[in-house]
Amino acid sequence: MIDKTLDTSILLGLYETAMLLIKQNVEFVSKQGLTNQQWVILIHLAKDPNLPFLIREKHTMPLMASELADSLGVTRANITNLLTILMDKGLIKQIEDKEDRRKKRLVLTPKGDKLIKLMQPDRKKSNAQMLSGLSKKEKELFLIYIQKCTENLQTQKFS
Amino acid sequence: MIDKTLDTSILLGLYETAMLLIKQNVEFVSKQGLTNQQWVILIHLAKDPNLPFLIREKHTMPLMASELADSLGVTRANITNLLTILMDKGLIKQIEDKEDRRKKRLVLTPKGDKLIKLMQPDRKKSNAQMLSGLSKKEKELFLIYIQKCTENLQTQKFS
DNA sequence: ATTAATAATTAATAATATTAACTATTGTAT
DNA sequence: ATACAATAGTTAATATTATTAATTATTAAT
User: Fold this and answer.
1) Which strand (E) or helix (H) includes residue A139?
2) What 3-state class would DSSP assign to A100?
3) Distance of A43 CA from C25 C1′ (whole Å)
4) Which of B14, B130, B154 minimises the CB distance to A18?
5) CATH number of B36-123
6) Which tens digits make up the pLDDT trace of A48-107?
7) What is the pTM of this model?
8) Least C-beta-crowded within 10 Å: which of A68, A143, B45, B60?
9) Helix, strand, or coil here: B46?
10) What single string gives the DSSP state of each residue in A67-108?
């Protein structure tokens, strides 16, 4: 018999919430012909200041594929596939790095930029709906708890 | 330019935390030759009282495949595949429902039960580590916020 | 008695991601 | 200066995970 604990209830709760959240997002972005992963790449290139990866690390130069792989937690090969699709759609383009010719910097095209801007209002509405019923103070605490978890999960790797 | 908001920071934070959490769990359960989904099914059959699905709905009878599909948010066909693997491994078994012969109830075998019990100590340790640095009071608030999100995400479907 | 609904399964396929091998370029250590 | 390692990206083959559509069996509803 497994006992009921706060820790495990939180973990399984987080898991379920994230699954629902992804499902909803898949629905949202598929209206624009995007997959969830493609969308996440686009908001990275749009420098969304809410992205944990961009909060933790300052990036003055445009991102490259390997940095996206880091942030999304997938392989570079996978990122290559996703970027090819986004380039075929004309939403992003690669720029060669003059200083290091191995690197390719990634930026939104005007079309990609326009698409992200177009989706913003509905996106914000849907995000607000997910958190409705929580006060500003509660949301601030919520964010702190989430960030604490991420921190713990990332340092755990080295134990 | 996308603006920084509490709502979106929380949403993207949740997303990242869940991805890290799943990665860690995949590592944990793969040591026992399980995938993440297989593991989630096993703790359902072990009646883990921390599972949101089991908190929301009382189940006196053993679960059936369609209920698992509901809880995991996947198709019944997918569940069938997962159950076949778990039965081949001898971790679960099907029991025919006498009252309704369409239904098949799912239970752990002694081997499956033993495996779950064996994994519990490490599981609890890892869950505690994810939440280290948070007080009991903070954890209680955290759980309430998570449950509020799930609620909001589930009612949003009908808008 | 017929039709609809529910439960589970099967087969084919879609999607998503990984591994391993390869090219090109840059960094490092003799 | 040369050799070796490391980084960045790509490609091809494959693994995985999940879905859709069709099928069987059983039960519910009209």
Assistant:
1) helix A136-155
2) coil
3) 29
4) B14
5) 1.10.10.10
6) 999 999 999 999 999 999 999 999 999 999 999 999 999 999 999 999 999 999 999 999
7) 0.95
8) B60
9) coil
10) HHHHHHTS-HHHHHHHHHHHHHTTSEEEEE-SS-TT-EEEEE
A94 Cβ within 7 A of any nucleic strand D atom? yes
Could you tell me if B89 and B33 are in contact, meaning their C-beta atoms sit under 8 angstroms apart? yes
- Give the pLDDT confidence of A2-61 residue by residue, as tens digits: 999 999 999 999 999 999 999 999 999 999 999 999 999 999 999 999 999 999 999 999
- Give me the half-sphere count of Cα atoms (radius 13 Å) on the Cβ side of residue A110: 0
Q: Tokens 């709906």, residue?
A: A129
Cβ–Cβ pairs < 8 A, chains A and B = 209
User: Which tokens in the block code for residue B130?
Assistant: 């994810």
Contact B136, A9 (CB under 8 A): no
Residue A127 has pLDDT above 90, yes or no: yes
Exposure b/e, A116-152, CB count within 10 A at least 16 = b: beebbeebeebbebbbeebeeeebebbbebbbbbbeb
**Partners of B92 in beta bridges:** B108
Minimal Cα distance from A42: which residue of B?
A: B2
Does 1.20.1250.20 match the CATH number of domain A6-119?
no
More confident residue, B158 or A76: A76
The string of pLDDT tens digits covering residues B29-88 is 999 999 999 999 999 999 999 999 999 999 999 999 999 999 999 999 999 999 999 999
Residues 6+ positions from B99 with CB-CB distance below 8 Å: none
Question: Residue B145: which of A15, A127, A134 has the nearest Cβ?
Answer: A134
* Residue ranges covered by each domain of chain A: 6-119
> Could you tell me the distance in Å between the CA of residue B70 and the C1' of nucleotide D22?
22
